[in-house]
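Assemble and predict.
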Amino acid sequence: MVVNSPSPLPERAIYGFVLYLGSQFGFFLYCLWAFIPEEWLHSIGLTYWPQKYWALAAPIYLLVTLVIIVVLLFGVNMNNTAPLDSLDNMTDVYAKGQKTTDCNKGGIPRLKDIDISEVNRMFYLSPKL
Amino acid sequence: MEDETFTDISGKAISLDCQNHSSLCREFVVSVPKVSIGKVMVYTCCVWLLAYAVFFFTENTAVLSSAIFITLVGMMLHIHFVKVDHETLLVIGSLGIQLSSSYASGRETTTFIEIGKIKDIVINEAIYMHQIIYYLCVLLKDPSEPNAVSRVVPLFQSSKPRLNCLMKVYKSCQEILSKC
């Protein structure tokens, strides 16, 4: 079974270099389209390209979307956090439905979600060792 | 009672006063420092300078009068509804507990919870904004289902003391609650 690891490999280096060359070339083409006047492009025969307005508008839209995504992510996370008076901070459906009986009295206790009152007693009421 | 310095979660100093009225009755008062006159003056000056700057450019006197009105109304609403002066927890064994918040304007809100509804008083940790804080809360139970928690009432919400203060209150409360 092949283990997936993030270490550098020759194939990954080749992929990275291809992506680098491709993105540099794509940027060069974008700059060509943005700077060459419309008449020259029409005279070559390339008539059905987007308006030059989008050469500026598209990057700005992209950056504004990025900023809004960052703010929105933070906001959505804070909105989904349970408030301090919610029961979700104490327990949930799975903890309430777990089996409470111990099958084997002498052995290691079953792994379970411990009640918060018991946890508090252990932390704050037990004498310091 | 020794007065080791307690702080709230953001580091501002608060004070805790525990009173032992009897073996069954204890009262804990967490006091927040009062509104400082320096801060009030700084805020007022900033708002009024800003209003004067706007007036300088727009030549509209309504800006000045509205700034004064908004400042006054805002301060009154703040001390009446927002600024808590001290919060009290009164535990009476086999009777119940009483939570009370007293605001800077003198207004007091009080809640009484009878002992039949109280399951336990615990310290829990939860995510609050960008940090995880300890907070003291009362677990309420339905008399019909004594093993399940029906509601959670967080205590000391406006003063938000840190763990050392909460531990003192918790140990004291458990002494009384375990007797009844």
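The mean pLDDT of chain A is 89.
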